[in-house]
Design brief:
heterodimer; A: mainly alpha; 50% helix; elongated; B: alpha/beta; six-stranded antiparallel sheet; 12 helices; 23% helix
Chain lengths: 139, 568
């Protein structure tokens, strides 16, 4: 089940030229703690085995993403569709929450967004248009 | 109540028991205490620790840490109509983002501080005079308020100067008469809010800096806002927000007349043989206590005001306190929040820092400030272009034309994350015969008490008003330079029920309302029920300024009645 979840998260937030994905950012560990899994991952795995003859965790990236897109669109039922939305929500939480919660390791999600990190004071210049805001110092 | 068997222990009596030390209760407690009355302030939540607020979107905005003491365990059930079973889980969207603690909702509110417009107090009569008897649908139960804007104006003014509100009088050409300017200048303008203000002016609209109960300059011994951007759904790290736990409540305590009883859950308002309320029964640390009082000032959130009345059954009030005419719970409404996001490619909008109330607001589409002939609805909402963009919220709002996950999504966020602007409208919503709160027959909270059940659906006027405001905000976004716009949050079958109105509404007619124009119960002369629950209509702004002005006015009425010894 953990491998299936890891594969889903890798599809949702892949590592690419823009930076770390969910797995390198600690989102798997985050989502394992927060996601109530009531059989959604097993259902997803069953879907992969039926359609492609192997575990979801072993699918090639393109096949995996195609299956996720079908699930997102509701092609495999409303229940799996809402499970997808739940996993996506938790993945976003893990990727963009304060790193103190275990995800967003090294501020990877915040760097992606250009979010400078929490700062006690935002100056007038920090709120001007088109200026680059000094990021928070690395912790 | 589960697990409580012994008789409540009787405490020494006080003049006034205030139930709920939030926006309304905090203001009233200070009025009572300064008048020399003894006050017990009974608050379900704890005292929050000053300076302990963390910049943590997950804990605050998502998990609602400030609701842990109470509301997170009593999310109301919801159903669109009475023939459907009510659940708490309907797409998770009937949310309960209240905060519990001494200070109530003013701990975590954004701090916007708008007065209602004069029109809001006379919606039914003015709308039907201007647009005909059909302006409101047959089953709409909206009434005029039993008081006019001018009756409340001195209290709006008093609250602004007591708390310290930032703004500029007259900057909004649609606002009602005001006796004084705000005590503080507006919050700092930002690149984004000025971009929208300029575009609005070019469109012939009337933008202004939204008023806020946040210090733009030091006030009341508290420092100015540092624009950190993490005070919405959180307390202020710097004490710059005029939350009542920082302002009126400590002032009331300094008189020596207010005793704050925190983490104390009111469970019943008992009555005597004459049908007068005798005080408050509450549970604290597992013990039941009875606080006798000459007067009870019920000032909790709309949900709890309603629930406590319905739970307080007696032979004098078999259907719940102050409910002889079956009005408690009726005429409930919530604002319908309309949000529009827009992307401005290539621009750094820099909304990551700063606070929501640094907004540019406009009232051109609020109240009766525009011609509603043929639109199929009355009223509108205040539109605000807001500062404040936290990372989770930013990542969750992308245009429908873009993938919502994968590398394409990441690329969009990396390219445009800091280029998204947001506008939000507090859309008016109206009360209807089939919109109400009652006690859920099946679902209880951690105390074993029934939860509130919401029966509510968006009616046609609310749908049309939503679409109209979304379209106006879209136009303004495009005028400001947006390349693409989309709805910030999905249009739902109900409203989010964060600000909840009605349910114990004010009125002249005891057959059609629960309290009079001073928020004193028609049926119970020594009980006031105060808060957004008193509102006959929702208004097109956040309610806090009006809640506090009503509380001040109600408290003054109670004080003069108690001083004339109308009640022993």
């Amino acid at each position: 089940v953990r491998a299936v979840l890891a594969a889903v998260l890798d599809g949702l937030v892949p590592e690419d030229e823009l930076g770390p994905g969910a797995l390198a950012a600690g989102v798997l560990e985050f989502v394992e703690r927060t996601l109530p899994d009531e059989g959604g991952l097993a259902a997803l795995d069953g879907l992969a085995r039926t359609a492609h003859g192997r575990s979801f965790a072993e699918l090639a990236a393109a096949t995996r993403d195609g299956l996720l897109a079908e699930v997102e669109a509701g092609a495999h039922g409303a229940e799996l569709q809402s499970f997808f939305e739940l996993v996506r929500l938790h993945a976003v939480h893990g990727m963009f929450a304060d790193p103190v919660h275990g995800g967003n390791r090294g501020g990877a999600g915040w760097r992606l967004l250009g979010f400078p990190g929490p700062k006690v004071v935002f100056t007038e210049r920090d709120q001007a248009l088109d200026v680059e805001v000094e990021p928070m110092p690395p912790s | 109540v589960t697990g409580l068997t012994e008789q409540p222990q009787r405490l020494p009596p006080v003049d006034v028991a205030v139930v709920g030390l939030g926006a309304a209760g905090g203001i009233a407690a200070l009025r009572f205490a300064e008048a020399g009355l003894t006050v017990a302030g009974i608050e379900a939540g704890p005292r929050v620790e000053r300076g302990a607020f963390r910049f943590d979107e997950l804990e605050n905005d998502v998990r609602n840490a400030l609701g842990a003491a109470k509301v997170n365990g009593e999310v109301p059930t919801w159903r669109p109509s009475r023939d459907v079973e009510a659940t708490t889980a309907r797409a998770g969207r009937i949310v309960s983002l209240m905060s519990n603690g001494v200070g109530g909702g003013t701990i975590h509110y954004a701090g916007q501080h708008f007065r209602l417009a004069p029109w809001h107090f006379a919606l039914r009569s003015v709308a039907t005079a201007r647009y005909g008897a059909g302006a409101l649908p047959a089953r709409c139960t909206a009434t005029d308020w039993p008081l006019a804007y001018d009756d409340l104006e001195p209290y709006y003014d008093a609250v602004e100067h007591e708390l310290g509100v930032s703004g500029r009088g007259g900057a909004n050409p649609f606002e009602g008469r005001r006796s004084r300017d705000y005590p503080l200048p507006p919050l700092r303008r930002t690149g984004w809010t000025e971009l929208v203000a300029g575009a609005a002016r070019r469109q012939g609209l009337h933008p202004f800096a939204g008023p806020a109960a946040l210090n733009s300059e030091p006030f009341g011994g508290r420092p100015a806002c540092t624009y950190c951007g993490f005070c919405n759904f959180n307390g202020c790290h710097a004490d710059a927000k005029a939350s009542t736990y920082l302002t009126v409540i400590p002032a009331a305590e300094r008189t020596g007349n207010l005793r704050v009883v925190e983490s104390a859950r009111a469970v019943e308002l008992p009555v005597d043989g004459d049908g007068r309320v005798t005080g408050v029964v509450y549970v604290r640390a597992g013990r039941a206590l009875h606080q006798p009082a000459r007067f009870v000032f019920l000032s909790a959130h709309t949900f709890e005001n309603t629930r406590l009345l319905l739970l307080s059954r007696s032979s004098a009030f078999p259907d719940g306190l102050a409910n002889r005419h079956g009005q408690v719970g009726r005429n409930a409404m919530s604002h319908v929040y309309v949000g529009v996001d827009g992307v401005f490619p290539g621009r750094r909008l820099n909304r990551y820092g700063g606070t929501w109330p640094q907004c540019t607001s406009l009232d051109d589409y609020n109240a009766d400030n525009f011609d509603q002939t043929g639109l199929g609805f009355v009223g509108g909402g205040c539109v605000s272009a807001i500062q404040e963009a936290k990372p989770i919220a930013t990542a969750l709002s992308t245009p429908p034309s873009v993938a919502r996950w994968g590398s394409e999504w990441k690329r969009w966020l990396a390219t445009h994350g800091n280029s998204v602007g947001r506008m939000v409208a507090n859309a008016e919503s109206l009360p209807y015969e089939d919109s109400y709160l009652d006690l859920d027959p099946a679902t209880v909270d951690a105390f074993g008490l029934p939860r509130i059940r919401i029966t509510y659906r968006l009616h046609e006027q609310e749908q049309r008003r939503y679409d109209f405001l979304a379209e106006r905000m879209r136009e303004l976004m495009l005028a400001a330079g947006a390349a693409e716009t989309w709805l910030s949050f999905a249009k739902l079958p109900a409203a989010p029920f964060q600000s909840v109105f009605g349910a114990t509404r004010m009125g002249h007619d005891p057959q059609a309302s629960v309290v009079d124009g001073w928020c004193i119960a028609h049926d119970v002369p020594n009980l006031a029920v105060v808060g957004a629950s008193s509102f006959p209509t929702s208004g097109g702004y956040g309610p806090t300024a009006t809640i506090q002005a009503l509380a001040w006015r109600s408290a003054d009425r109670v004080i003069s009645a108690l001083e004339s010894s109308a009640w022993s």
